[in-house]
Design brief:
Layout (H helix, E strand, L loop, with lengths): L1 H20 L3 E4 L8 H13 L4 E5 L5 E5 L2 H10 L4 E3 L1 H12 L6 E5 L5 E4 L14 H8 L5 E3 L1 H5 L8 E4 L17 H13 L5 H17 L3 E5 H12 L8 H4 L7 H4 L42 E4 L8 H6 L6 E3 L8 E2 L8 E5 L3 E9 L2 E6 L26 H11 L11
Helix pairs in contact: 2-3, 2-13, 7-8, 8-9
Protein name: Asparagine synthetase B
Keywords: Signal
Length: 423
């Protein structure tokens, strides 16, 4: 009995070692072998939420993720339809060694803390049907990444400091209700008027300026801001026009300052300068705010219909490398109220991460102790023009969308910050 028992113990030990050797890490590829790129980000976020680290392998197989192996994570990947590979510790170490080679444009960034995410949206207080097509709300829900919704009151009360990551989308911070009735309903407008009155502002434009300044303070204090579509444009317009009436009589009952353009202060903005305001075309007039928007109401700005991501050094330009991780570097253009950014309006301090032939599409910068990204357009998989722009995109049809991946890169970016020490 001793010999068979000893043999059995040795066999169990060997098989146990083999099992341990080949099941110590999970690689989530983000190249063409990935079955669902967007939901893969949700897996990475869940691991962080469970207080485990995620290694982001920059420029390795499309920006893959590597995590410690557990049966729970494997199950979660299978349930969500996310491709993964179980690898040994030695294989994981070999990959990291490969990425550390100074001759290759790759790197490993360890993500350590799930960001507290909020989306600024009027759906907090009103029906706001148009906002239901907010690409970030859609992709956060699809990727199963939890978030909260805030609007003007939360900003005015100073609640932003409780969070790490703030998104702005189809919003008008100038107080002109999107420049026409197609953008906001009477209910949406009434809610904003009520909030302004509650907090002692005589005009919605004054209240929206206070909100814009609150958002700027959030970012300067160390928060991360991600803005798309008209929010990116109107936030800077509102900040530049502090103390200047740029709102026509059709919106607030009195005329705009005839010298408003000359009084703009571009030192107060995030990304844009040297821009010209569009004239007031009436309550149901044009929806263009300024010449920051290179499309100027044409829908999208070039016949080719594509923009290109820049290739950054993963070792020296780590932040833009994280924000541009993708399995494709050429991405189809998509329209929006602010489709793309005129090159001449982009400040030299703004880092361009993606550009089309005639415009900049994807910008990054720093504000105080925080960071921000501005992304032109409304929906990366939206129709390129004509009708249907009010219909939410079904992301089940676009699980590999490179345009949506850029959004999710931004969601994970704050997790690269170091955890606070426990004392």
């Amino acid at each position: 009995m001793k010999q068979p028992l000893s043999f059995l113990l040795i066999l169990l030990a060997i098989t146990g070692q083999i099992s341990a050797a080949w099941a110590n890490a999970i690689l989530i590829p983000m190249d063409d072998q990935q079955a669902n790129h967007l939901k893969a980000y949700g897996i990475a976020y869940k691991v962080l939420k469970d207080e485990q680290d995620v290694d982001w392998l920059l420029n390795y197989r499309g920006g893959s993720f590597m995590v410690k192996q557990t049966a729970a994570i494997e199950t979660e990947c299978r349930v969500r339809g996310v491709s993964f590979e179980t690898i040994s510790d030695s294989k994981a170490a070999s990959i990291k060694q490969q990425l550390s080679d100074p001759d290759v444009n790759m790197n490993v960034v360890t993500l350590q803390k799930a960001a507290k995410i909020i989306v600024y949206s009027p759906i907090k207080v009103s029906p706001a049907e148009f906002e239901n097509t907010d690409a970030v709300l859609l992709v956060l829900t699809y990727a199963e990444i939890p978030y909260e919704v805030v609007y003007d009151e939360e900003v005015l009360k100073g609640d932003l400091a409780k969070y790490d990551w703030l998104h702005l989308h189809h919003e008008d911070f100038t107080g002109q209700y999107g420049r026409n009735m197609h953008r906001q309903s009477l209910t949406d407008i009434k809610v904003q008027e009520d909030i302004a009155k509650k907090y002692g502002y005589s005009k919605v434009s004054q209240m929206k300026l206070a909100v814009a300044k609150g958002i700027k303070a959030f970012c300067a204090g160390g928060g991360y801001l991600f803005a798309m579509c008209s929010a990116a444009e109107t936030l800077d317009i509102a900040l530049a026009a502090e103390g200047v009436d740029i709102v026509g009589s059709s919106y607030d009952g009195d005329g705009m300052d005839p010298n408003a353009q000359e009084k703009l202060d571009f030192t107060k903005t995030f990304a844009f300068g040297n821009f010209t305001l569009e004239a007031d075309n009436g309550y149901r007039g044009f929806s263009t705010f300024s010449d920051i928007n290179s499309a100027g109401g044409r829908g999208y700005d070039q016949p080719g219909g594509f923009f290109e991501l820049f290739n950054f050094s993963a070792k020296w330009d780590v932040i833009p490398s994280m924000l541009t991780q993708n399995h494709e570097s050429i991405i189809k253009e998509f329209f929006g109220q602010t489709t793309a950014f005129r090159k001449g309006a982009v400040k030299p301090s703004s880092l361009v991460m993606g550009e089309g032939k005639t415009s900049d599409r994807y910008l990054y910068g720093e504000m105080g102790r925080g960071q921000w990204t501005f992304y032109g357009g409304h929906d990366p998989e939206g129709l390129r023009g004509g009708g249907g722009f009010r219909n939410p995109t079904d992301l089940n049809l676009h699980p590999h969308s490179p345009g949506y991946r850029l959004i999710l890169n931004n969601v994970l970016f704050p997790s690269a910050r170091k955890k606070k020490r426990k004392t």
